[in-house]
Write a structure and sequence with these properties.
Elements: E1 8-13, H1 21-34, E2 38-41, H2 46-51, E3 55-57, H3 84-96, E4 101-106, H4 108-121, E5 125-129, H5 145-166, E6 169-174, H6 181-190, E7 194-196, H7 204-216, E8 222-227, H8 234-246, E9 250-254, H9 266-284, E10 290-295, E11 298-303, H10 304-309, H11 317-325
Parallel strand pairs: 1-2, 1-4, 4-5, 5-10, 6-8, 6-9, 7-8
Antiparallel strand pairs: 2-3, 10-11
Helix pairs in contact: 1-9, 3-4, 5-6, 6-11, 7-8
Bound molecules: 6-O-phosphono-beta-D-fructofuranose.
Length: 327
């Protein structure tokens, strides 16, 4: 469907919220309205897409949200939408509401759903990558990642104060279900002695050797960073393994969901504004089944299929560099 035929678009946030989703929503709504499009909010992601309750968004509804964390139109995860019958109900609901195209703000699970909706029901959809995990292939960064890294870093700086005062070893667990981007960035920026990610599992013995080598050089406190991986609470297992093998007593601190909230950084607001606007441009140009991303200074288009089926690899030099720098 092309610009002249498209009258009303729907926008939704899906999956885990991320700081900057509101800024992306604001850009989508304001750019779309500048093209005389109507914009409807689809509340709570795919849950709302199936259940209905869509409502119009105006320019003024977008006032004072650029600085707010979370998402004012709510987000959610829907098990019903994972099944073809659920998607058929969503497509019917969209048709009843005269939605001509969709903008999906979310992560890879959300884009997998959007891809299926396009294949099965030919409802045009363009994605805006929003997740703190930064695990979407095809874009340098996702919306929310920079804020989450800065939030975690602030906590780690505080933990370092108390670690140094008491000569303690800390293990700090950051978010990242399948991804080590937050852990690697926070570890590098926070001077961590060792970083554990889902993709590069540092052997416990190596971490112990690193701590001992530091102590031999007069180091009295250390901070190890671990990504939660598939299992939140992984830091406790790590602390126990270190205690058993070395006798070192590690304090555990799990940062958890605080990393998902808070006011987005300027970097995330700018990224969200650029990607939100670009997504509307693509949808109007007749594009579908793809997301927008950034590659250096450029905005790029990436097929959903490629984005969700290609693993975004953490560059190994982050961990190596962090290890060298924390000697
Ligand atoms: O995908 C973002 C994320 O914050 C992951 O880092 C984390 O594993 C997951 O969401 C937690 O999801 P929930 O809030 O549903 O527990």
């Amino acid at each position: 469907m092309y610009a002249e035929c498209m009258k009303r678009i729907g926008v939704y946030c899906s999956g885990g919220d991320a700081p900057g989703m509101n800024a992306a929503l604001r850009a989508v709504v304001r750019v779309a309205i500048s093209y005389q499009l109507e914009v409807y909010a689809i509340p709570s992601g795919y849950v709302g897409m199936i259940e209905g309750g869509y409502y119009p968004l105006t320019l003024r509804d977008m006032a004072n949200i650029i600085q707010r964390g979370g998402t004012i139109i709510k987000t959610g995860r829907s098990s019903d939408f994972m099944k073809p019958e659920g998607r058929a109900r969503a497509a019917e609901q969209l048709r009843q509401n005269n939605i001509d195209g969709l903008i999906c703000i979310g992560g890879d699970g959300s884009f997998t759903g959007a891809h299926a909706l396009w294949l099965e029901h030919k409802i045009p959809v363009v994605g805006v990558p929003g997740t703190i995990d930064n695990d979407i292939f095809g874009t340098d960064n996702t919306i929310g990642f920079d804020t989450a890294v800065n939030t975690a870093l602030e906590a780690i700086d505080r933990i370092r104060d108390t670690a140094a005062s008491h000569d303690r070893l800390f293990i700090v667990e950051v978010m990242g279900r399948n991804s080590g981007f937050i852990a690697a960035h926070v570890g590098l920026a926070g001077g961590a002695e060792e970083i554990f990610t889902p993709d590069f599992v540092t052997p416990v013995d190596q971490a112990i050797e690193k701590i001992k080598a530091g102590m031999a050089k007069g180091k009295r406190s250390s901070i190890l960073i671990t990504a939660e991986g598939q299992k939140p609470g992984r830091a406790y297992d790590l602390a126990e393994a270190i205690r058993k093998k070395s006798g070192f007593d590690a304090k555990v601190c799990i940062l958890g969901h605080q990393q998902r909230g808070g006011s987005p950084t300027a970097t995330d607001r700018i990224l969200a504004s650029r990607l939100g606007g670009a997504a509307v441009d693509l949808l109007r140009a007749g594009e579908t089944d793809c997301m927008v991303g950034v590659n250096g200074e450029n905005i790029v288009k990436v097929d959903f299929h490629t984005a969700v089926n290609t693993e975004k690899k953490l560059p190994p030099y982050y961990l190596k560099l962090a290890s060298v720098l924390s000697l």
